[in-house]
Every structure is written in structure tokens, then in C-alpha cells.
Specification:
The protein is of the alpha+beta class. About 15% of the residues lie in helices and about 40% in strands.
Length: about 140
């Protein structure tokens, strides 16, 4: 969560991001891991190429009017996607420990979506991302 906290676009929101939990309040942010097969390739030396899929989520107040609020929300979440691309260019990745290396960060969609709109005029916006990396299963001594 420390890595995701570097996102400058969180500063306008709650300033923190949680794992697996998104509150109802506008500006609440979360990273939700996507369950599934994580090993892409295995080698006899104990190295596995793995993928970690996750979803960035944020709650925003929405509008029933044509006042631009909903467009601003989409733009704000799109900035998160731009940040993911910037982190890949800068080779700035989450720290998965000394046994992990050769990271690659990817957006899995070209734009965020509204995952759900609620009766209280709020909505959950989200987009998927992926981190591919190598991990050695044998402990170094």
C-alpha cells in the first residue's frame, strides 16, 4: 500500500488507499486483488514468472445533471491510469521482496469504468492493472 500511496492524485481524496475494502465515502480508495492463476512460466532453477492482477477502485459523488461532475470523476480516475503508465516508465514498482525482480506494470483497460452507481448518488469507479514479475522459490542463503 506504501507504493500506491505515492500516487499524487490521492492527495485530493482521502490520502490513503486500503486493501480489499472500499468505504461508501466519496474519495475512498482501494486496491482489490483479482483471484486467479498467478504463474505464467516456471523454470527448473526455481524461478517463476508470475502475474498479480488487481483493481484500483475509488468512490465519488455523482450527478444526475449535465454539470460535468461525472466527466470530472472519469478524468480523475484516468489520471490514476496515467500514473500506472508513468510508474512503468520510471521502473517504480511495489516491493515484493528481495526474491522478486524484473517487474512490468500494465493497465488492462484503456479507460476506467463505473462499476456500480448507488441510490445515494455515489458511484464506484475502477480499472484493472497487472504486475508481472519473476520470483525465485528457493531461499538464498
Amino acid at each position: 500500500m506504501e507504493w500506491a500511496g505515492q500516487n499524487p492524485y490521492l492527495s485530493d481524496l482521502t490520502g490513503e488507499i486500503k486493501l480489499n475494502w472500499l468505504s461508501e465515502g466519496s474519495g475512498s480508495c482501494a486496491i482489490v486483488p483479482v483471484p486467479g492463476e498467478t504463474i505464467i512460466e516456471s523454470y527448473v532453477d526455481g524461478t517463476n514468472v508470475k502475474q498479480y492482477d488487481f483493481i484500483f477502485q475509488v468512490m465519488f459523488d455523482i450527478s444526475e445533471n449535465a454539470d460535468g461532475v461525472n466527466i470530472e470523476n472519469m478524468f480523475a480516475v484516468r489520471q490514476w491510469q496515467d500514473w500506472i503508465e508513468q510508474m512503468e516508465r520510471e521502473r517504480n514498482y511495489p516491493d515484493f521482496g528481495e526474491d522478486c525482480w524484473d517487474y512490468e506494470l500494465q493497465n488492462l483497460s484503456n479507460m476506467p469504468d463505473v462499476a456500480r452507481a448507488y441510490d445515494n448518488l455515489s458511484a464506484r469507479y475502477q480499472f484493472p492493472a497487472r504486475l508481472i514479475y519473476c520470483e525465485n522459490l528457493f531461499k538464498k542463503e
